[in-house]
Amino acid sequence: MATIIATTPFGVTEASRDLFSHTPISRRFTQLNIALSKYIEFERDLEAADCFDLAFQAWAADAEMARKDVLHATDAITASPLERLEDRPLKRSALLVRALIVSDNEVEFTALLRLLDRYAPLFACCAVGAVGARVQQMLETCHSHLDAIAKLGEFNDPVAVGAEPRSVAEPDMLIATCAI
Fold first, then answer.
1. Tens digit of pLDDT for each residue in 76-123?
2. How many CB atoms lie within 10 A of CB 45?
3. C-beta of residue 180 within 8 angstroms of C-beta of residue 95
4. Phi, psi for 154 (deg, rounded to 5)
């Protein structure tokens, strides 16, 4: 004879309340991280290329397309409504990424990049649980991409950065990110 024994623990088949699920902003932020990674790689390829190389024009077009993809992703995040509190640092970081990519010179870029360290709580997720951990992981990936972008020749001029006075763009950017 067979004895019926429940081998599945109670509650295992029910959905956990602490699972991560994407919001439109977090989904687009993942796409932003992918676009940033491509942008960095294409810019690195362009820096290592010789302008007389036959493939230089294709590499330049790839880099420009990657830049447009990053800007498109930041625009999509900015236009998306907040669905949970954990979306705020994602949206702030997207605004900062956009400002860094479109910055006119190394001084402005450096001033904007300093916001990330100076106002770290605005660009971090302090929530606990699976959602907070996943959002913080996405933010850390993005911030490491920003560090890699800062090392690119396009944004890294030691002479301009060393002679820099404090930028007026810094407080304006902070006010814009805090408003979110």
1. 999 999 999 999 999 999 999 999 999 988 899 999 999 999 999 999
2. 15
3. yes
4. -60, -35
